[in-house]
Every structure is written in C-alpha cells, then in structure tokens.
Amino acid sequence: MTRGAPLFEPSPPQGRADRGMVAAVLGAHGASCFTGWDLGEADLADLDLAGCVFARCRAGRASFANADLTEGRFEACDLNNTNWRGARLAAAHLADCKLTGAQFREVSALGLTFARCLLVNAYLRGVSFRKAECEALDLQGADLAGCDFREAVLLDCNLRDAHLAEARFEAADLRGADLGDLRLSDASRFRGAFISKAQAAQLLIGLGLKVV
Question: What's the pLDDT tens digit per position in 2-36?
Fold first, then answer.
C-alpha cells in the first residue's frame, strides 16, 4: 500500500465476525479500515493490525493480546472488557471509546493516546501519559499505579477512586480533573502538580481546618 493512500474499507459481514474474516482482509489488502464490524469476543491475538482503523465497531471482550497495533486508530468503538496484554500500541490513538474493564497489561505504549474515553476500572498500570493532553477520560477506579503523568494536562478527567500508587504527577495540570474526596494522605500522590483553589481547600478541610 502506498504511504498516505486511503485504506481499503471492507463491508462488515452479516452477524459477528471472527479472526478468520479479519485475517483474510489483512492478507488481501494489508492495513484496512473496519467500519461497523461486530468483533465481540473475537480472538485477534498476534495479528498484524498496524495502521488499521476501527470505527464504530462492537468488540466487547475481544482479545488483542500481543497484536501489533502500531499507529492504529479506534474511533467510537465498544471495547469493554477487552484484553490487550502484550500488544504493541506505539502511536496508537483511541477516541470516544468505551473501555470499561479493559486490560492493558505489559503493553508497549510509547505515544499511545486516549481522548474522550470511558476507562472505568481499566488496568493501565505503568502506562505513560507524560506531556499528554488528556481530554474527558473517565478513569474512576482504574489501576494507574506507576503511571507517568508528568507535565500532562488533565481536562474534564475523573480520577475518583483510581489506584495511584507510585504514579508521578510532577508539573501536571490537574485543575480540570475530578480528584474525588481529597484527604491529607492523598497530598503526596500529587506532589509537584498544579491544583485549583477548590482542590487545595479540600485538602485543608482534610486537616480539620475550616476554609472561609
């Protein structure tokens, strides 16, 4: 395929697609644009999906384990409870997707970005968001242990009840994020970050002080 040429867009099959259907498209056309496909519970592990686009697909409980998704794009897809263990996601972008319970374990994620995604209870441990502009990410209850948010901007993001052990927030702008009910014990997690006056007041309340 010529670089910059439009991707082949196969018609979605009737009913649920399986691994063989996706592999057949890849074998014939290389990187393709899958629009409106039903990939629920599909086993797409180990496939070369680099540069592919998935738009408005239903792929709940699908497996992308160890797949190559370098520079892949997911737009307005249902990806709830998907398995991404070991996937190569360098420069991949996911926008307007449902990713509740998604498992991003041991992924290669340099340059991976999310926008306007539901990531409730997702496993994202160790993923780097450094210098990223995170817009409208619902990370409530997500496992973000060891994540790097240094110099990131979190706008309209929800971090309530997220697991943040060893996450780094130096120079991150958290003024547009919902950090939940802040307590004094939470302060060290956000060391070096920028927070709003309202968020700072919440911490003072946690000290037992009355903010007037």
Answer: 456 799 999 999 999 999 999 999 999 999 999 99
Q: Give the DSSP H or E segment for 201.
A: helix 197-206
- Token readout for 93 is 């972008």
Q: What are the beta bridge partners of residue 93? A: 73, 113
Q: How confident is the model at residue 138 (pLDDT cuts 50, 70, 90)?
A: very high
Can you give the length of the chain in residues? 212
Kindly report whether the global pTM for this prediction surpasses the value 0.70. Answer: yes
* Residues 42, 4: Cα–Cα separation, whole Å: 29
Look at strands 93-95 and 33-35 and give their pairing: unpaired
Instruction: Give the C-alpha separation, 180 to 4, whole Å.
Output: 44
Tokens of 31: 């990187």
